[in-house]
Design goal:
Blueprint (H helix, E strand, L loop, with lengths): L6 H24 L12 H24 L5 H23 L12 H28 L7 H43 L4 E6 L4 H12 L5 E3 L7 H8 L8 E5 L7 H9 L3 E4 L7 H4 L2 H8 L10 E5 L3 H9 L6 E5 L6 E9 L2 E8 L2 E7 L4 H16 L4 H9 L9 E5 L2 E6 L5 H12 L5 E5 L9 H13 L4 E5 L5 H9 L5 E5 L2 H6 L1 H4 L5 E5 L4 H4 L3
Parallel strand pairs: 1-3, 1-4, 2-3, 4-5, 5-6, 11-15, 12-13, 12-15, 13-14
Antiparallel strand pairs: 7-8, 8-9, 10-11
């Protein structure tokens, strides 16, 4: 089995084509921690594959016509060349500056891209070599090139899974190194924060309070996976007093893995709801996994949202080594908040710290932000931060981007809650919107990853919106059907406009929004969800 002299040109075309083909597939799996099964859920990839199929049919038809010409070798070469040019053009256009969240060329993504590209090219090279040995008419070998795009998804699945095996080994190595490094930092106070919502906000608020007294290392943005925490710990040195880590979880075992790496002594549980029910399968699985944060031992302290007393207490009673449990929330007498007043300029309230009341203002809006402040303040207080420093930090807090962020611009107020995608956060956002004066506009694609409860929760979202909104802009024609039903059955009498994409809705703002409107942007799905329906 050998390659002919001109075959290397075709192999080069395959390599370039495979490189461009891999990127949209890689983008799809990157949205869910490189799980290969995501390509089967992605309608955009299905459309691309259909276009590939049409291109193959057209060019194979042209190839068949040229088969009957004496100069078929030359015309076959041109047919293959233009076929690959068409492929390049399609996949180049697919790699998309227009995506809300473009493909991130992390080290893992680059490794995966190059590995799958190389292995796909190698597979075609072997096929060409076999073809040279068994196919007497060289013109027939061009069929291998035409059918390459059709079998590429299978190649991506095989080589993507092989790549993932290597990555799991690599990640395990980093996790062990991170765990060892944290264990060696004996005087380091380690704090973990998890929950179905509010993790990043509580993390940022707590960090601001602790920095009044300690040197704090905190996981940035939403670095809440083993690799994200490992990257953060790379910057750990002897100058830090406290390490604050956000723990994310989409499946059973995620919190257990993170607890084994960090081994925190102090933890915060912000809330539990049906977020990620699709991947957790049952509500019981969600509760059990989130409550693994309680496993900090008898010397530890867990600050828990008081809304969770019933569900957490059952899990706590089953622990062999019980830590100190402190409930904090809006209705708690020891660590709580009362006399809450929310305006379009911020909020003011009385915060209770160890039963003592202190008046405080904050530029943040929304009762759930006050709830998150109380959780952070309770932990800061227990770690020895003096009350005046806690109050000063609260007054200087800044909203986390896209989480109830109030923006003034072009004559309207925008409440940007686009990162929120859970039922509790949605209800709170609508309650906050109701406090504003002016015409109230809600734009949303609905809630996702709620499994069998998704339609029910979106219907309830519509019911809640019907009591607040004056104008509703829905993104996604099929997904938002339950919201529309909830609006109508809730007695909503305003206008409802449905768009097939976020861009289409934004382009229509000039026709829908007026001066002094208040626009609530509730959830902003990644492109992968816009493609599903």
């Amino acid at each position: 089995m050998t390659l002919l002299r001109g075959d290397w040109f075709y192999i080069l075309l395959v390599f370039i084509d495979a490189f461009f083909m891999t990127r949209p597939y890689l983008y799809a799996i990157q949205q869910d921690n490189y799980r290969i099964t995501e390509i089967f859920k992605n309608k955009r990839l299905s459309l691309v594959y259909l276009i590939d199929l049409c291109a193959v049919v057209v060019f194979v038809g042209i190839w068949c016509i040229f088969y009957f010409l004496q100069t078929r070798a030359f015309w076959g070469f041109l047919t293959v060349l233009f076929f690959f040019i068409a492929e390049f053009a399609m996949y180049f256009m697919e790699d998309l500056p227009t995506r809300k969240k473009p493909l991130k060329y992390t080290k893992r993504a680059v490794r995966c891209l190059l590995f799958i590209t190389a292995m796909s090219t190698a597979t075609v090279t072997v096929a060409f070599a076999i073809g040279n040995a068994y196919i007497t008419q060289q013109y027939m070998r061009f069929l291998i090139l035409f059918f390459f795009p059709l079998v590429y998804p299978l190649m991506f699945i095989v080589f993507g899974n092989i790549s993932n095996i290597f990555e799991r080994i690599n990640n395990a190595m980093y996790s062990r190194r991170t765990a060892k490094r944290l264990a060696q930092s004996q005087n380091l106070v380690k704090i973990a924060i998890t929950g179905s919502y509010g993790k990043t906000s509580v993390k940022n608020f707590l960090s601001a309070m602790l920095q009044q007294k300690y040197n704090v290392l905190v996981t940035p943005a939403s670095y809440n996976t083993p690799m994200g925490i490992s990257k953060t710990v790379n910057g750990l040195d002897g100058t830090y007093d406290v390490f604050v880590a956000e723990f994310g979880a989409r499946r059973v075992g995620d919190i257990k893995t993170l607890m084994r790496i960090v081994k925190p002594t102090y933890t915060i549980l912000t809330g539990i709801n049906s977020q990620h029910l699709e991947t957790f399968r049952t509500q019981e699985n969600i509760t059990k996994e989130k409550c693994r944060i309680l496993g900090v031992g008898e010397e530890g302290l867990c600050v828990v949202n008081s809304k969770l007393k019933d569900s957490v207490q059952n899990q706590y009673d089953g622990l062999k080594h019980k830590p100190q449990l402190l409930y904090a929330g809006l209705n708690e007498e020891d660590f709580g908040a009362e006399n809450i007043r929310v305006t379009d300029c911020g909020s003011d309230f009385d915060i209770l710290l160890d039963g003592q009341s202190y008046y405080v203002k904050t530029p943040l809006i929304g009762t759930h932000n006050i709830e998150n402040i109380v959780l952070a303040a309770a932990m800061a207080y227990k770690l020895g931060v003096e009350v005046p420093f806690i109050l000063d930090a609260i007054e200087k807090l800044e909203p986390v981007p896209h989480r109830m962020e109030l923006i003034h611009g072009n004559g309207i107020k925008i409440i940007d809650d686009s990162f929120n995608s859970n039922p509790d956060g949605a209800r709170t956002a609508l309650e906050t919107l109701a406090l504003f004066e002016g015409r109230k506009v809600v734009m949303t694609p609905g809630l996702v990853e709620l499994g069998e409860k998704e339609d029910e929760e979106n219907y309830n979202l519509g019911l809640n919106m019907s009591a607040v909104a004056d104008l509703v802009l829905l993104i996604g024609i099929k997904r938002t059907d339950p919201i529309r039903r909830g609006l109508i059955e809730g007695g909503y009498g305003g206008e409802i406009h449905v768009y097939d994409s976020l861009k289409t809705a934004e382009d229509d703002f000039a026709n829908r929004l007026h001066m002094d409107d208040i626009l609530l942007i509730l959830n902003d799905l990644p492109d992968i969800y816009n493609e599903k329906r």
